[in-house]
Design a protein that fits this description.
Layout (H helix, E strand, L loop, with lengths): L23 H4 L2 E10 L5 E9 L9 H6 L1 E7 L9 E5 L1 E8 L5 E7 L1 H6 L10 E5 L10 E3 L26 H10 L3
Antiparallel strand pairs: 1-2, 2-3, 3-4, 5-6, 6-7, 7-8
Length: 185
Amino acid sequence: MPVREPPAHLKELAWGEATLVLGEAAANGHLLSDTGIARRKDGTWTLYVKGVPTSLGCAGGSLCELCGRSIFRTTSTDLITWSALVKMVDKSSIPEATNYLDGSAWLYWQDFTPTCAAQDLMVAARAPISGAFEQEGGTLSSTVTVSFPKEAFETGTTLHYPTNANPIALPTKEAKAAFDACFGK
């Protein structure tokens, strides 16, 4: 269905109907794309979105544009009304989010910090995946880098680092063991 102006309440949307979530005013001078959403233990929804300032004037996919990307967060209690965007992570792209059973939200993203430090667009294909928990008050925990040491894409200069996975937090050690058994671990 076509996008329409935001309704007053989520119940006004028909099945499969879409609505505008973040309009031009909310974008605050950024081109927005790529989202990840999670629900906090207090019931609040947190939406993470990639933003690139329109004022940069960089060509898409250029080193300038990659290094200008950031992850922003907005929150909602009703999925209709959203808070102002807050910058969470610089030099980053492709946000994803998930929840753990305790209600904590985990944000992860492709990290272009090494690409920007090297000033080498070829490093972007191997940009690592980083992540952090959202803490009380909305700040992020210390960043961790996800790595797969035995995989060729970790060191192969012609291979692209995998992104856009949808993580699943397994609820118990037994569930993790059963999952690992599927892969012969």
